[in-house]
Input
Amino acid sequence: MRGFTLLEVMIALAITAGVLLTVISSVNFHLARIAEDSEETTAVLLGRAKLEDPEFAKKTDSKGSFAPDHPDHKWEREISKTDIPGLNMIRFTVIWGNDSKRLSLVQYAPQNAQ
Output
C-alpha cells in the first residue's frame, strides 16, 4: 500500500499555512504603504499647487483648507526671515487625517514676493 502518512500530510499543511500567512501579511503591508504613499502624493501636489499660485502669494492668511475639492486637507503657512537679507523662508504645511498627518514644504522667496 502506497500513500502519505498522517504525519506527512500534517507537515505539508503546516508549511502551506506558514507560507500563506506570510504572503497575506506581506500583501496587507504593501497595500497599506500604497495608501499612505497616495495620501502623501496628494498632499505634496496640493501644497505645490498652492505655493505656485500667484494669487495665493498675495494673501496674508496663515491657515486655510483645500475645500471644496479636498475638504479633509488643511494648510498652514509660516513666513520667517533668513540670515540672508531680503530673503524669506516659507514653510507650508499640509495637514490631513484628522490632524494626525502632516507634510511640510519649504520655499525661499524674496521679501517683496509675499
